[in-house]
Automatic annotation (TrEMBL):
Organism: Actinomadura luteofluorescens
Taxon lineage: Bacteria, Bacillati, Actinomycetota, Actinomycetes, Streptosporangiales
Keyword NAD: yes
Name under which the protein is recorded: methylmalonate-semialdehyde dehydrogenase (CoA acylating)
Residues in the signal sequence: none
UniProt keywords, alphabetically: NAD, Oxidoreductase
Length: 501
């Protein structure tokens, strides 16, 4: 049985006039489970119009009412998140517990946005000049577009839409066409939470849908997350049209292990962050930088742990039997396997080759087991490119400076981690590396919701990171009101004075 996955506009499903449909597969079986509408230009207009119409009233709804709806959404999400997690596992392939984890991290942003009344408070200065008061407010922007990647179909949209909606904007979410069902489920949850029709909309599709949002004069801002080439394109196209834009791109995150670190802790972290969600995380560790003389021992400990991992259909992990699922599509699986071949050819040492994996799942699944390469050098393709799969590369270095130089020479600057028991070295590392998010003895340092998420260099185009106070600033614009009210007991005019006040 395949299902049809449509758009959502004005509080209800909308099929539109799609010029094309795309197959949606279950990566653990390889079977087509649905087909998703790919928006045409008129469909984009229809969905944006629904959001535009809703903005005229939503921006004027009281903060108290907006907050109540957010609290209802949070309660519903919290009580029904296992339904959403099951949808994610069935289309993305990540194991069920991991899908639940991404929802919980997204829910933190909903909880942060429940406090929007406090976050939108402006300042007030009485008697800034004689009889003149000044106050500031933050106003919503209008219709905002959110374009998200396949790897976090719930969490990444939730980095943005709770804050956008709480601040009085209306939203058009364009999810990845690879796992589009989560967005529709979320839209229905908003309806149940009492959000007025048209405030949250879903536009399914690919490039036509994205270009439609970028070109529409009715879309005021774009929040994009995806690969670096598309992030750069979105940033350039949106900013050329005067839109506010934040575009988060790809990553190659390094984890440095210094001599004296707890090697057991480091090995656990490398495996968890390297192979969790089959390496399809923008904060995955893909390069392990081992400072000699500890590399031999560390590689042995990592390899021992990898051999205990169970690869299979993530839907089976309710009995806690599976650690890592398949890759998202066959094309992506083959691309990652191609990197493994490239590493081998370039002379890296394959300690564990995931192409030989025996998965607990159907033969048609897009399986690729955890792969560990040792003696990787910076000139190799597997070091230079973002692989976005379960491939961990060990680079051996002989000094701390060499480790930092590697990180700073990389085109990406999303995250980096250091494992050490030396507080001074950790502190220096946090200052020295040119990345946006740093972990000390923590491999995936995704900031909590009240801080902001974002990388440096080619991992983020624009200057505003996601969620936290930067998110509130992104989805609002400042207004300053300077006012004079004549004291009724004085009743005098200001007099004529043509000079600059
Ligand atoms: P992607 O760039 O292929 O797709 C992202 C979005 O852009 C999707 O909605 C897709 O439909 C759309 N898109 C794809 N090609 C397009 C084109 N040519 N023109 C216009 N729109 C297009 O990324 P993906 O494969 O879905 O996700 C994986 C990538 O996302 C990785 O590079 C990963 O590092 C990155 N990512 C980054 C972060 C971060 O916070 N920096 C978080 C998650 C994922």
């Amino acid at each position: 049985m395949t299902k049809e996955i449509t758009h959502w506009a004005g509080g209800t499903e909308f099929t539109g006039t799609p010029e094309l449909w795309a197959d949606v597969t279950n990566p653990a079986t390889g079977r087509v489970t649905g087909r998703v509408a790919l928006a045409s230009e008129p469909d984009v207009q229809f969905v944006v119009d629904a959001a535009k119409k809703a903005f005229t009233t939503w921006a004027g709804v009281s903060l108290a009412r907006r907050t109540q709806i957010l609290f209802s959404f949070r309660e519903l999400l919290n009580s029904r998140k296992s339904e959403l997690a099951a949808l994610i596992t069935a289309e993305h392939g990540k194991v069920f517990s991991d899908a639940l984890g991404e929802i919980s991290r997204g829910q933190e942003v909903v909880e942060f946005a429940c406090g929007i009344a406090h976050l939108l408070r402006g300042g007030h200065s009485e008697n800034a000049s004689t009889g003149v008061d000044v106050h500031s407010t933050r106003a919503p922007l209008g219709v905002v577009g959110i374009i998200s990647p396949f790897n976090f179909p719930a969490m990444v949209p939730m980095w943005f839409f709770p804050i956008a909606i709480a601040a009085g904007n209306t939203v058009v979410l364009k999810p990845s066409e690879k796992d589009p069902s989560a967005a529709l489920w979320i839209a229905d949850l908003w309806r149940e939470a009492g959000l007025p029709d048209g405030v949250f909309n879903v536009l399914q599709g690919g490039k036509t849908a994205v270009d439609g949002l970028l070109h529409s004069p009715d879309v005021a801002a774009i929040s994009f997350v995806g690969s670096t080439p598309v992030a750069q394109y979105v940033y350039e196209e949106a900013s050329r049209r005067g839109k506010r834009v934040q575009a988060l791109g790809g990553a190659k995150n390094h984890m440095v292990v210094l001599p004296g670190a707890d090697l057991g802790l480091a090995a656990d972290a490398a495996v968890n962050a390297g192979y969790g969600s089959a390496g399809e995380r923008c904060m995955a560790i893909s390069v392990l930088v081992a400072l000699e003389p500890i590399a031999d021992e560390l590689v042995v400990q990592i390899a021992e742990r990898i051999r205990t991992l169970r690869i299979g259909d993530g839907r089976r992990d309710s009995a806690n039997t599976i650690d890592m699922g398949p890759l998202v599509t066959k094309a992506h699986r083959d691309r990652v396997a191609g990197f493994v071949t490239s590493g081998e050819r370039a002379g890296a040492e394959p300690v564990i080759d995931g192409r030989d994996v025996q998965a607990h799942g159907e033969e048609g699944g897009f399986w690729l087991g955890p792969t560990l390469f040792d003696h990787v050098t910076p000139d190799m393709e597997i070091y230079r490119e973002e692989i976005f799969g379960p491939v961990l590369c060990v680079v051996r270095v002989s000094s701390y400076d060499e480790a930092v130089a590697l990180i700073n020479a990389n085109q990406y600057g999303n995250g980096a981690a250091i494992f050490t028991n030396d507080g001074g070295a950790a502190r220096r590392f946090a200052n020295d590396v040119h990345v946006g998010m740093i972990g000390v003895n923590i491999p995936i340092p995704v900031p909590v919701a009240y801080y902001s998420f974002g990388g440096w260099k080619r991992s983020l185009f624009g200057d505003t990171h996601a969620h936290g106070t930067e998110g509130v600033h992104f989805f609002t614009r400042a207004k300053v009101v300077t006012s004079r009210w004549i004291d009724p007991s004085v009743r005098s005019g200001g007099g004529l004075e043509l000079g600059f006040p």
